[in-house]
C-alpha cells in the first residue's frame, strides 16, 4: 500500500513540475526530460562525482566534529549540576545566532578553503545533537542508573551501557534533523565560496542562466538527502532491534 | 572480626529531606530506627504505606545518606562521616527493586551477566553459574529474548538472578513481587526460598503483605508510621522447608498473623 502511495505521489509531483515548466517556460522551470538528459551527461563525463564527493566530504567532516562535541558536552555537564546551570543557557542562547551571518567572519579567520564551511556545518550539527543528547540524558530512567551503580558499574560502564543506550531514540530523532541540515549547510556554504561541490555546481549554473543545471543540482541534492535518510533508517532498525514493535503500525 | 557480631547493625538511623526551597528541613521520615541482622538470616519488614520503607533500603544500599545514626557492616561503619556514598557497598549489598529494572536493550542472559561484566568477573565459571541460575528459575530457552518479550513473572525472575549471580552477602528486596498475580507470586516466592535455602544469603525483604512476611521470613520487623521506627520484632518459628501453598494451615500462622496485623496500623 505504502509503495503504491509513494509512486502515485511521485508521479503527481512530476506532473506538476512538467505543468509548471509548460506554463512558466524554460528560463524559470526546467523541463524534467532535459534534467534527466543533463543528469546522464554529468554522470557520463564524471563531473557529478567530483562535486558530490567534495560536498559529502565537508559534510562528513563537519558533521563528525559537531556530533562529537554535541555528545561530549552534555555528558560532561551531566557530571555537575552547577556546570549545567552555568553553561546550558549560554549554549542555548548562542544557538540563536544565525550561523550564515558568521560566514564573512569565518572566511576572514579560516580563509576561503573548506575550513569555514566545515565550521558552519559543525555548528549546525552541534546544536541539534547537543539538544537531543541533553534532553535524552534528562530522560534516562533514574532507577536504571541506581541499579547499575549498585552492581558495580564504573562511570565509563554506566555511560556506555546505560546512558548511551537510553539516548538512542533521542539520538536518531536528532540525527534525522541534523543530517539534512548539515548537507544544506554544506550546499549554502558552497554558494558563498567554493570552486567545487554541488552548491558550487548549482550556483555556477545559475550565473550562466542555465536553469536546467540548477534543477539538476537540486534533484541530485534531494536524492542525496533521501539516500542519507534511508541509510539512517536502516541503521536505526539495526541498532534498536530490541524495541517492542508496535503492532498497529507494523502493517 | 568477632564471629558473634551481627552482619549488619542499624543504630539510631534517622532521615529527613531538605524542603523544596532548600532552606529548611521537612519532618523526620525515619527516626531512631535500630535493628541488627545475623548472617544468613531472612528478615521480612512490614509497615504501612508511606512508612519510608524504600528510604530505609536506599540508605542500607548506600544510594542515600542517613541524616543521623550509623550503619555497620561486619562491625565496621559503612561510611566515614562526610565521605562519599558507595552504592552497593562494593558489591556487598545487592538490591532487587520494586520494578525489574532490566536494561531493555539487553537480552535476558546479557542482563543477568551485566553485574559480572561491570565487576570484571565474567569468565567461564561465572557464565556457567548464570546458566545454572537461569535453569533453576525456568528461564532456560529465553536467554536471547528481550525483556519486553518476557512475562512480568519472568522479568522478576531475571532481575532476581541478576542479583544472585554475583553473590552479594546481603540482598535487599523492595516489594519485589508486589505487582504480580497470586499464582505467579507463589511460584516466585518458592523459587526465592529454594535459592535462599541453597545459598543462605542474608535477605532483607520489604513487603506490605503480612502473609508473605510470615511465609518467607525467619523474623518479621514491623515499622511504625512516620517518623518510622521498629515497633515489632517477631521470630517466625515455622520450620523449613515450608510449604507456601499451605502456609495458612500451619498452626503458628494464625497467631502470628493476628499479632502482626494488630501492630500494622
Describe the structure.
The complex is a heterodimer of chains A (251) and B (265). By secondary structure, chain A is mainly α. Chain A has a single domain (32-238), classed as MetI-like fold (Orthogonal Bundle), CATH 1.10.3720. In chain A, 81% of the residues lie in helices and 0% in strands. Chain A has eleven helices and no strands. The termini of chain A are close together. Mean pLDDT of chain A is 91; it is low at 247-251. In chain B, 31% of the residues lie in helices and 21% in strands. Chain B is built from seven helices and ten strands. Chain B has 265 residues and is α/β, with parallel strands linked by helices. Chain B has two domains: 8-92 and 168-263, P-loop containing nucleotide triphosphate hydrolases (Rossmann fold, 3-Layer(aba) Sandwich), CATH 3.40.50.300; 102-167, no CATH class. A six-stranded mixed β-sheet of chain B has the order 6-7-8-3-9-10, sandwiched between helices. In chain B, strands 2-1-4-5 form a four-stranded antiparallel β-sheet, covered by helices on one side. The A-B interface holds A 141, 143-144, 146-154, 157, 161-162, 165, 168, 240, 242-244 and B 61, 63, 87-88, 90-91, 93-95, 97, 99, 101, 103-106, 114-115, 117-119, 146, 148-149, 162-163, 166.
Amino acid at each position: 500500500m505504502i509503495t503504491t502511495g509513494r509512486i502515485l505521489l511521485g508521479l503527481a509531483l512530476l506532473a506538476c513540475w512538467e505543468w509548471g515548466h509548460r506554463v512558466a517556460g524554460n528560463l524559470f522551470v526546467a523541463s524534467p526530460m532535459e534534467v534527466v538528459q543533463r543528469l546522464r551527461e554529468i554522470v557520463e563525463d564524471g563531473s557529478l562525482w567530483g562535486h558530490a564527493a567534495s560536498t559529502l566530504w565537508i559534510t562528513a567532516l563537519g558533521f563528525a566534529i559537531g556530533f562529537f562535541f554535541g555528545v561530549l558536552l552534555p555528558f560532561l555537564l551531566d557530571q555537575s549540576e552547577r556546570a549545567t546551570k552555568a553553561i546550558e543557557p549560554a549554549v542555548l542562547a548562542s544557538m540563536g545566532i544565525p550561523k550564515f551571518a558568521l560566514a564573512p567572519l569565518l572566511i576572514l579567520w579560516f580563509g576561503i578553503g573548506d575550513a569555514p564551511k566545515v565550521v558552519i556545518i559543525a555548528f549546525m550539527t552541534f546544536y541539534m545533537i547537543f539538544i537531543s543528547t541533553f534532553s535524552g540524558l534528562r530522560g534516562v530512567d533514574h532507577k536504571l542508573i541506581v541499579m547499575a551503580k549498585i552492581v558495580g558499574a564504573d562511570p565509563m560502564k554506566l555511560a556506555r551501557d546505560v546512558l548511551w543506550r537510553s539516548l538512542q531514540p533521542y539520538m536518531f530523532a536528532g540525527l534525522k534533523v541534523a543530517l539534512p541540515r548539515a548537507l544544506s549547510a554544506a550546499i549554502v556554504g558552497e554558494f558563498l565560496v567554493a570552486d567545487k561541490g554541488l552548491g558550487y555546481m548549482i550556483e555556477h549554473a545559475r550565473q550562466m542562466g542555465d536553469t536546467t543545471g540548477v534543477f539538476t543540482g537540486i534533484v541530485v541534492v534531494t536524492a542525496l538527502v533521501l539516500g542519507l535518510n534511508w541509510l539512517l533508517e536502516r541503521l536505526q532498525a539495526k541498532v534498536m532491534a530490541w524495541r517492542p514493535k508496535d503492532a498497529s503500525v507494523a502493517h | 572480626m568477632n564471629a558473634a557480631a551481627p552482619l549488619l547493625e542499624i543504630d539510631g538511623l534517622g532521615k529527613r529531606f531538605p524542603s523544596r526551597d532548600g532552606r529548611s528541613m521537612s519532618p523526620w521520615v525515619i527516626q531512631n530506627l535500630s535493628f541488627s541482622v545475623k548472617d544468613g538470616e531472612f528478615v521480612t519488614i512490614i509497615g504501612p504505606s508511606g512508612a519510608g520503607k524504600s528510604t530505609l533500603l536506599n540508605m542500607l544500599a548506600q544510594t542515600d545518606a542517613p541524616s543521623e545514626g550509623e550503619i555497620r557492616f561486619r562491625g565496621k561503619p559503612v561510611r566515614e562521616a562526610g565521605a562519599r556514598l558507595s552504592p552497593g557497598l562494593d558489591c556487598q549489598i545487592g538490591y532487587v527493586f520494586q520494578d525489574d529494572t532490566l536494561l531493555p536493550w539487553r537480552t535476558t542472559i546479557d542482563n543477568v551477566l551485566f553485574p559480572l561484566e561491570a565487576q570484571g568477573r565474567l569468565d567461564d565459571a561465572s557464565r556457567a553459574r548464570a546458566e545454572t541460575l537461569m535453569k533453576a528459575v525456568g528461564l532456560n530457552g529465553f536467554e536471547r529474548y528481550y525483556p519486553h518479550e518476557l512475562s512480568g513473572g519472568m522479568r522478576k525472575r531475571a532481575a532476581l538472578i541478576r542479583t544472585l549471580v554475583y553473590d552479594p552477602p546481603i540482598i535487599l528486596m523492595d516489594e519485589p513481587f508486589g505487582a504480580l498475580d497470586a499464582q505467579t507470586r507463589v511460584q516466585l516466592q518458592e523459587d526465592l526460598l529454594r535459592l535462599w535455602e541453597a545459598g543462605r544469603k542474608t535477605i532483607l525483604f520489604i513487603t506490605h503483605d503480612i502473609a508473605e512476611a510470615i511465609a518467607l521470613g525467619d523474623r518479621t520487623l514491623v515499622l511504625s508510621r512516620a517518623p518510622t521506627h521498629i515497633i515489632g520484632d517477631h521470630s517466625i518459628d515455622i520450620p523449613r522447608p515450608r510449604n507456601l501453598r499451605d502456609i495458612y494451615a500451619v498452626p503458628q500462622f494464625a497467631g502470628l498473623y493476628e499479632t502482626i496485623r494488630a501492630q500494622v496500623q
